[in-house]
Amino acid sequence: MATFFQSVRQGFGRGGNNKNNPPKSPVHSPAPHAHQGGAMSNSPSLSNSLTLDNLAANDPDGPKYFFQEKYAPLNVRGNFLTLCACPKNVELGEWLAHQIVEQYRLLHGMLQVIQEVNSVTGLPICNENTCPTMSAGRLTYTWLVEGRAAKISAPKFINRVEKWIVSKIHDPVMFPTDKLTGTPETFAIKEAKSTGGGAAPNTPDNASAGTNGPASSDEWIGQSSGFPQTFYKDCQGIMKQMFRCYAHLYHAHWLNPFWHINKHDILNMCFVHFVTVAKYYQLVSDKEMEPMQPLIDLFIKQQRVPPEALNGGHWSQQVST
Ligand SMILES: [Zn+2]
Asked: Which residues form a coiled coil (predicted)?
């Protein structure tokens, strides 16, 4: 039974968790270093952010300060591996479910920042005018509408992603919290194999190959906790959409509002945590992460994304211990 995840999910409200909310009202005050020349001197006037709100937020040729080391601080120290690695006594499926919920909670907090309504314009910071498409630099993400890829505005896209993720998290089939009624011998088989040391771990490569488990058996991640066969693939799908939201947050809104309200370090903290989980459990492909690659490379170089999260992550850790 998914008891661990059940206990975690109880704290997750449909309306969003406000525990670690970013500030309610973005104050468009100049950032501390905004007028001290240097690279920021080319930025739009920081004291004129009302005008900025009406400009296209996503200038693909605009300067990408967020890829530069001096603009990439974190507001915390420590190793994100400790938050990310699956404890020995917790089943991997339950742990992944917990990670997904936690990652969504963090992302939701960041999305609320750009959803804040400007009291002068009456529009959210991310609106149909600033972000007519869901873009990250030159890349535009599309949404499937009646089987066809459609370019929809970023606020619409993000709204759909959020609803979709919340519906997945609350879907009792995808994220079960009830006791298993199926075959209890699954536990015994699993136990025997894991203590025998000979069983191959459920690798993501196998799981994403379409069978959701090693070809030689019908096991899958989360099986013993009652998660469906598609569980790992669904986790990948959710994390992919979450990544796209982060890519838009950086490319379109790093300067306004995150830099303006001096919350870019919190955005970085959430993103480093996200990337660590994504890499450690191979939930988002390298190709998908390309729009944020320079920042990811920087975080890897600084070991903010810990080395253990790379090169196989969880599964290589399992083999080496
Ligand atoms: Zn936007």
From this structure: none
- Percentages helix, strand, coil for the chain, rounded to the nearest 5? 50, 5, 45
Residue 200 CB neighbours (<10 A): 13
Report d(CA 11, CA 224) in Å as an integer. Answer: 23
Class of the CATH-defined domain 66-320: mainly alpha
Q: How many Å apart are CA 152 and CA 143, to the nearest integer?
A: 7
Task: Tell whether the torsion through CA atoms of 240, 246, 249 and 255 is positive or negative.
Answer: negative
Read off the pTM: 0.73
Residue extents of the structural domains in the chain: 66-320
- Is 248 annotated for ligand binding? yes
- Phi then psi dihedrals of residue 158, to 5 deg: -65, -40
CA–centroid distance, residue 70 to ligand 1 (Å) = 24
In the reported structure, the alpha carbon of residue 221 is separated from the centroid of ligand 1 by a whole-number distance in angstroms of 35
Query: What would the pLDDT profile of 168-202 be if each residue is shown by its tens digit?
Result: 999 988 888 765 554 433 333 343 344 333 333 34
End-to-end Cα separation, the chain, in angstroms: 26
Average pLDDT, integer, range 20-31: 38
